[in-house]
Every structure is written in structure tokens, then in C-alpha cells.
Design brief:
With 113 residues, the chain is an alpha+beta fold. 33% of the residues lie in helices and 28% in strands. It contains four helices and four strands. It has helices at 2-14, 31-39, 47-53, 102-109; strands at residues 58-62, 65-74, 79-87, 93-100. A four-stranded antiparallel sheet has the order 1-2-3-4, covered by helices on one side. It starts with a helix and ends with a helix.
Amino acid sequence: MKTLILIVLGLQLAAGGDYTWYGMPKKLHSDEQINAMATALAGRSIEVPITLFGAPDAELTTVGHHLMVWIGRDPAFGSVCKLNVGVGPDNQITRAWFTGQKGGCLVLARQLP
């Protein structure tokens, strides 16, 4: 076990200290930073998340509003998160945000452009 800890610490130092002990980038630990990545989708085509994640896990259409949802799961910790994307009539993203547990959100956020 000591050897494993030393190897992980050595890898962290070699990477410049930009990673946590379990391999997640430190820069993605803030909820604000994670949500900023989703917010950056606004104004882009709905094809962007469809290309990245495939078909949405859920869709809801009401008068004048269309919502698409992708679900991210962190298999190591069992956390779940949803990427909610509002889509306008021109197929442009009007709003995007995460809801759920941070580990699941990281699974999705790491794949965003």
C-alpha cells in the first residue's frame, strides 16, 4: 500500500500537481467551474452534445420550450448527474446546466469542448 501511495504521489508531482490523489483534474473541482462548462454550450448547435454523448436520455417538450437531458454516472463512486440543455426552435442551445452529484457531473464535464 505504501508503494502505491508513493507511486500516485510521484505521478502527481510529475504532472505538475494539477491532479488530485484519485486522478481528477483539480481545475474541475469547483461547482462554479463545472457549471461554467455547461453554460458555455449556450448559443451552440444542439448537435454538439448529441455528437459528444449520443441521443439524450430524456426529452421534454412544452409550449415554446424543449429540454434534453443526458445522465452521467461515476462508476467508482456511484454518483449521478444530469446535463440539462434547453433548446430553441432554431436548434440552438438556449441554456445548459448540471444538476446532481459532482462525481457524475465530472464524467460529463470532462467531455465538453
